[in-house]
Amino acid sequence: MPDRYVTKHPKGWAVKAPGRERASSVHGTQREAEKAAKRTVHNLGGGEVRIRGRNGRWRDSDTVAPGRDPNPPHDKKH
């Protein structure tokens, strides 16, 4: 599955595959982790990148090409 999650990590922000405990990469900022996650998902053929806030709640998600956005008219943020 090409989807990736950006979550808080003791050393910064981690990029993880769904269902995995171990991070595939760790970054100093959430923005760097988000960029890395999107690059990975794009290289794997597209999918979703979901981002958790500092409070542990999902705060954002984005469909990365060539993935298919299930709600294109509603996704005006990206």
Task: Provide structural commentary.
By secondary structure, the chain is of the alpha+beta class. The chain has one domain. It has one helix and five strands, in the order E-E-E-H-E-E. It has one helix at residues 30-43; strands at residues 4-9, 12-16, 25-27, 47-52, 58-64. A five-stranded mixed β-sheet has the order 3-2-1-4-5, covered by helices on one side. It is globular, with a radius of gyration of 12 Å. The model has no long low-confidence stretch (mean pLDDT 88).
Quick overview of this protein structure:
By secondary structure, the protein is of the alpha+beta class.
What Rg is obtained from the alpha carbons, in whole angstroms? 12 Å
H-E order: EEEHEE
The residue-averaged pLDDT reads: 88
Order of strands across the main sheet:
3-2-1-4-5
Q: How does the major sheet shape up?
A: 5 strands, mixed
Low-confidence stretches: none
State the end-to-end CA separation.
Answer: 22 Å
* SS strand fraction: 25-35%
Count of strand segments: 5
Helix content: 10-25%
Question: Which descriptors would you attach to this protein?
Answer:
5 strands; five-stranded mixed β-sheet; 78 residues; alpha+beta
